[in-house]
């Protein structure tokens, strides 16, 4: 689908209910005036930035003017719209048509929600179970090398584990090594 057809499809959406304010329209016009190759001449930019005309009229005239100029001009308008009003750019009807989901494709927004809906308590519970099992397996292994390695790790970790907890773990490891 060409950018001119997309712009024709999006024209009503862009001009209805003041979706674009004067500042954003001015920024878009200035960008189209300053971009290489120059999309709008200085006279055209002044015409579309005229504060005496209604915003709706200026915007409609700008969109019609760009459609007459060709696909490249319409493409630059979309680029300027994306830079200056990204949320509005993402909400365009033509963008929603382009984003129609492929039935074989995974919807990443839905997948992200599905992974994050459990909350922090679920994460902490899983982490605690995993850490408990790892500590149990690590300490119950009868090899002295493992206990010596654990003593070194716990001995050099006062930042990670509080001193009180570290002292209890060290006493437990010393008792294990005596047995």
TrEMBL record:
Key word Disulfide bond present: yes
GO cellular component: endoplasmic reticulum membrane; mitochondrial membrane
CDD domains to which the protein is assigned, alphabetical: CARD_BinCARD_like
The keyword Ligase belongs to this UniProt entry's keyword annotation: no
UniProt domain CARD: residue ranges: 38-96
Main location: endoplasmic reticulum
Protein's cellular compartments: Endoplasmic reticulum membrane; Mitochondrion membrane
TM segment ranges: 120-138
Keywords: Disulfide bond, Endoplasmic reticulum, Membrane, Mitochondrion, Transmembrane, Transmembrane helix
Highest taxon, organism lineage: Eukaryota
Gene Ontology biological-process entries: regulation of apoptotic process
Self-association and partners: Associates with BCL10 by CARD-CARD interaction.
Protein name listed in UniProt: Caspase recruitment domain-containing protein 19
Organism of provenance: Certhia brachydactyla (short-toed tree-creeper)
């Amino acid at each position: 689908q060409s950018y001119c057809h997309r712009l024709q499809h999006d024209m009503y959406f862009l001009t209805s209910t003041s979706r674009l304010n004067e500042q954003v329209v001015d920024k878009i016009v200035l960008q189209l005036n300053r971009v290489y190759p120059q999309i709008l001449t200085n006279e055209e930019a002044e015409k579309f930035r005229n504060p005496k005309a209604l915003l709706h009229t200026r915007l409609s005239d700008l969109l019609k003017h760009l459609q007459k100029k060709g696909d490249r001009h319409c493409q630059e308008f979309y680029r300027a719209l994306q830079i200056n009003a990204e949320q509005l750019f993402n909400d365009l009807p033509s963008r929603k048509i382009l984003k129609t989901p492929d039935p074989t494709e995974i919807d990443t927004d839905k997948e992200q929600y599905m992974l994050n809906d459990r909350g922090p308590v679920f994460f902490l519970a899983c982490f605690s179970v995993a850490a408990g099992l790892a500590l149990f397996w690590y300490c119950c292994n009868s090899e002295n090398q493992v206990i010596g390695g654990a003593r070194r790790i716990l001995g050099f970790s006062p930042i990670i584990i509080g001193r009180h907890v570290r002292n209890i773990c060290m006493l437990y490891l010393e008792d294990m090594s005596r047995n």
